[in-house]
Specification:
This protein is an alpha/beta fold. Helix content is about 35%, strand content about 10%. The termini are far apart. The structure holds beta-D-glucopyranose (2 copies).
Length: about 600
């Protein structure tokens, strides 16, 4: 221990003495956070400060790099998991990285970030909760806060300290591939659901199983022209403030620890280089005191050309970004920023402010005292309790849109036929950001498919027949359930500039069911409203399931009336794709308005 000061050790309390044995050797835990930050800063070299501002991808570093370059943070990109992908190996991995960080003179712990955006979704067998659009349909901020808490516990057991969630985007155009990451199309909804920040962070950041939350993507990500991911937001300042800023204000009020900048631009200027948005509005006006992190290679886009230049590094840091997510080119980033500082183009004051913000959050999180994974939480990963919470959230998120002649709820003892590509597919019902970045079809993780849920809920001895494409149905069935919709996607890969209807497979499946004369209920598993108006008259019932995650039994709960449907549309449902963008109060006539949602009569 290089900086231990014996005379001070004498007056330390027990907790502080413990701190000496782990991180923060020289910075007593019983001092005010400000003091501890000042003391640390006073003894850090420029290179140590640059390291703190750097976030690299875990696959792009060795333990030795972490120690040598004094890296401040690592992340797992979407799907970037240790092998085998088990909770224990996550904990081993993050602890290994942490030991490397603690082997530096100032023993500043790393902060490790993951996209735990609907549960701890990179981890096989973790609980996968509904994506935000479904949570928006619940209209239940308390439930959503509970999901934040459960997710934080699962994350804590496996070692990361930071989630890049919640996405507080207000999705204004359903063509956008990230619509499902949005709680809904109006600012009030996303603002109310900022409650999840309190779930992630707990009442106090240094509480047990508290992780740092990230309000993202600041600002206007859901407001791009054409719903183009990472595109341009062509709104007046008044509109930007009215529609896209409020959820960030709500998150700041809740003490959110970090804010991630959006890839998008505002009137042609990339947010990553936007000093007015980052420093003037977010930091000064909203008084955000946490750390601003860039998006993945986000600074590369400032000049519209691939890769980052010295000018982009300077512009982004001077605009107010405190930590830069430079997954692979972190060495060049450090060298470039050092040169900019030495040339006086990035003021030392800015570097110190960034470090102050980063170190403050690390201290508040208790990382200096408890730098390692708290393995007592390992057992919460995919636990029965968390899965029960997810099932409840799924049931609450279902939106009943059509129910002709009370075709729903289904009789538990009726003869049922189930079909559709999303009926028996954990991957499809979980969507993007599940085990991998884009998500994938198939049995990618453990869970209950919607078909499993239907089977478990139907009365013992009753008949539930399944065929994926609907072949084999005959008129002897009481009802047919077609579970159709979208397959997984994430970010720009989900942009839909053209048609937004069901694919030919789904239409064929439904047609086969209909031909039998049996009443057909469509369960739509999708990240957004689809263009279904022309088909709807042929269906007897319609439920919007969104992307429910691993607990498909929650869907069955609603189909059978174990739970009454209470979900309300978090977005306006288009009458045709040409209506996009379509939003509450814009004068267009939708198929179903924002807030629509039926329930059962009894
Ligand atoms: C996404 C962010 C995410 C980051 C790290 C980016 O591509 O836009 O939402 O947090 O990657 O995975
Ligand atoms: C990563 C994601 C990231 C994306 C950005 C992917 O390779 O896994 O985390 O968001 O790249 O384009």
């Amino acid at each position: 221990m290089m900086h231990r000061n014996p005379s001070r050790t004498l007056v330390l309390g027990v907790t502080a003495a413990l701190a000496l044995t782990t991180g923060g050797a020289a910075v007593a835990a019983d001092r005010p956070v400000r003091d501890r930050v000042d003391r640390l800063l006073a003894r850090m070299t420029l290179d140590e400060k640059l390291g703190q501002m750097t976030q690299a991808e875990r696959q792009a570093v060795t333990a030795d790099d972490i120690t040598r370059y004094r890296l401040g943070s690592l992340l797992s990109g979407g799907g970037s998991a240790p092998s085998p992908n088990t909770p224990e190996s996550w904990a081993d991995m993050t602890d290994g990285f942490q030991r490397a960080a603690l082997a530096t003179p100032n023993k500043i712990p790393l902060i490790y970030g993951v996209d735990a955006v609907h549960g701890h979704n990179n981890v096989v067998n973790a609980t996968i909760f509904p994506h935000n659009i479904g949570l928006g349909a619940t209209r239940d901020p308390g439930l959503v806060r509970g999901i934040g808490r459960a997710t934080a516990e699962e994350v804590t057991g496996t070692g990361p300290d930071w989630t890049f969630a919640p996405c507080l985007c207000v999705a204004r155009n359903d063509r956008w591939g990230r619509t499902y990451e949005s709680f809904g199309e109006v600012p009030e909804l996303a603002s109310a659901m900022a409650s999840i920040v309190t779930g992630f962070q707990g009442e106090r950041l240094n509480g047990r199983a508290s992780i740092l939350a990230t309000a993202k993507h600041y600002v206007g990500d859901g407001g791009t022209t054409g719903g183009d991911d990472q595109g341009d937001v062509d709104l007046s300042e008044a509109e930007l403030r009215k529609i896209h800023l409020p959820p960030f204000r709500a998150a700041v009020r809740r003490g959110v620890g970090s804010v991630m900048i959006s890839y998008s631009s505002w009137k042609g200027v990339k947010a990553h280089g936007h000093k007015y948005l980052i420093t003037d509005i977010l930091k000064k006006e909203l008084r955000f005191s946490g750390l601003v992190v860039s998006d993945w290679n986000g600074i590369d886009q400032i000049d519209g050309k691939p890769g980052f230049t010295a000018e982009e590094v300077r512009t982004s840091i001077n605009a107010g970004i405190d930590m830069v997510m430079v997954p692979h080119e972190w060495k060049r980033f450090i060298d470039t920023l050092r040169a900019e500082v030495q040339a006086g183009r990035v003021p030392m004051k800015r570097i110190d402010d960034a470090n102050r913000r980063i170190l403050t959050k690390k201290i508040e999180l208790g990382l200096f005292e408890r730098p390692f994974a708290d393995r007592s939480y390992l057992k919460t990963v995919g636990s029965a309790e968390h899965r029960a919470l997810a099932r409840r959230a799924v049931a609450r998120s279902q939106v009943l849109l059509k129910n002709d002649r009370d075709v729903l709820p289904l009789a538990r003892d009726g003869k049922l036929f189930v079909a559709g590509k999303n009926a028996d597919d954990i991957g499809n019902q979980s969507g993007g950001w599940t085990i991998t970045w884009q998500g994938a079809s198939g049995a990618t993780t453990r869970g209950t498919t919607i078909l499993d849920g239907i089977r478990q809920t139907a009365a013992p001895g009753s008949t539930v027949t399944y065929s994926k494409d609907g072949t084999g149905i005959d008129s002897s069935y009481k009802a047919a359930v077609a579970v159709v919709g979208e397959k997984p996607y994430a970010e720009f890969e989900g942009d839909r500039p053209g048609a937004m209807g069901l694919d030919a497979d789904d239409l064929g499946t439904i047609e086969r069911l209909r031909a039998s004369g049996v009443p057909v209920v469509v369960v739509l598993v999708s990240g957004r409203p689809l263009d279904i108006a022309a088909e709807l008259p042929k269906w007897n019932g319609l439920v919007a399931s969104w992307l429910p995650g691993t607990e498909g039994r929650g869907v069955a709960d609603v189909l059978f009336g174990v739970s009454r449907p209470t979900g309300k549309l978090p977005v306006t449902w288009m009458r045709s794709a040409e209506q996009q963008p379509i939003n509450r109060g814009d004068g267009q006539t939708p198929l179903f308005p924002y807030g629509y949602g039926l329930t059962y009569r009894r």
